[in-house]
Each structure stands twice: as C-alpha cells, then as structure tokens.
Specification:
5-stranded parallel beta sheet, 11% strand, DNA polymerase, domain 1, Rossmann fold, alpha/beta, globular
Length: 210
C-alpha cells in the first residue's frame, strides 16, 4: 500500500532528546549516569511520569512524587527540576521535512507531554508554530492516554482517516515503536536527524532536504 501519512513523535525527533539534558544534569549533580531514566522506568504505567503525562496528577504533585521515587532509589531529585529539562532545541532539518511532507501527504504528531502549571506562560520553544504544521496532533496530557498504549495510535489513524499500513511512524524510543509496528505501520527509530531522514526519504520516495 502506498504511504499516505507520516506520524511523528516530538521530543527526541523534531527537537533534541531530553535524555541529553538528563545526562548533563546527572553530571552536574554527580548522579549515576542514566539515573533519571531509571526512575522513569520503575512502574512505568503508574509512576509519577506516567501520571503527569495522562494529567492524572498536577505539576506540584509530580514534584513530590518524583522526589519520593528518586529518593527510594538513593538520590532525591525534585520533579520540578526534571520538568525544566524537557524543552530541547528544535532541529531545523526536521521542520523542513515536515513542510515538504505536508505538500504531498498527511502528517500527524503523537506526543507524551504534560500540562504546564501556568497555561498562560509563553512556550519555551517555537513548538506551537511547528504544531500548526500537522493535520492532527494528539497530546497525552489532553487525551488521557499515552504511548505506548495502542489506543493512542488508533486515535491518530482514525483522525487522519488512513490505514495503519499506509503510515510511517517515527520515534526515538523502541518501546513506542512496537505498538505502531504491530498495527502494521512502517517504523523508524530516530537515532539522529540524518539517519532518520535517510530512512524516511527511502520510504516516501521524494527528497525532504534542500
């Protein structure tokens, strides 16, 4: 089946990975490398991270919950400090690819996110403008469901009115690619912009870079 839609993750795909910021934070604080990710990996369906991405807790509650979870693993880190690490720099080559794709195909974004404590605060990046390029966006904090729950992928294909096998899905996390692949989507694990765009161009059959 011909490709009709390309579906994107945001952090670690269109913007730099927050894991890079996590690593810098760990080095600055003298924490074990990978510590923050290890906290997030414990009880992944119901930990503080899962709750805030489903809007099942507030930012203030997340601050306390993450502090308790990290302390239980030997190093207390406030949740507010972690949330401050999430706004990565935008990758311009990925935005250019979005613009070119939009001319020929449907494009969507599925992002695990959280609602800011101050909804009137200006965005820390030009993310809002980029979100306007997509034909449909699903944010976990607004949908009440997060990746890798298969429901969120079905919500996107239904909104775009496409079959999963006519879709490509890009994400930097393998765990989030598995449900998409199981539905029949083509998947690309994003390790770098160049690598991802090479694979994406091969699948769509037209250039995405200048």
């Amino acid at each position: 089946m011909a490709i009709e839609a390309v579906i994107w993750d945001f952090g670690g795909v269109i913007s730099d990975s927050p894991f890079d910021a996590f690593l810098r934070f760990e080095r600055e604080r003298g924490l074990p490398e990978g510590f923050l990710r290890s906290v997030n990996a414990r009880n992944p369906d119901d930990n503080a991270w899962a709750l805030i991405e489903r809007s099942a807790c507030t930012a203030a509650e997340f601050d306390e919950l993450f502090a308790a979870e990290s302390a239980a693993l030997g190093h207390e880190v406030r949740g507010a400090e972690v949330l401050a690490l999430l706004d990565g720099a935008i990758r311009p080559e990925m935005v250019e690819a979005l613009r070119r794709l939009r001319e020929r195909l449907k494009i969507g974004c599925i992002t695990n996110n959280f609602l800011r404590a101050d909804p009137d605060a200006p965005p820390m990046t030009d993310k809002a403008e980029i979100m306007g390029l997509f034909h449909h966006v699903i944010e976990s904090a607004r949908a009440g469901v997060r990746k890798p729950d298969p429901r969120i992928y079905r919500m996107m294909t239904e909104a775009l009115e496409v079959e999963p096998r006519a879709c490509i899905y890009l994400d930097d996390l393998g765990i989030n690619l598995k449900p998409a692949r199981a539905m029949g989507m083509h998947t690309i694990k994003v390790m770098s912009p160049g690598q991802a765009l090479d694979e994406l161009e091969a699948l769509v059959g037209f250039p995405l870079r200048g």
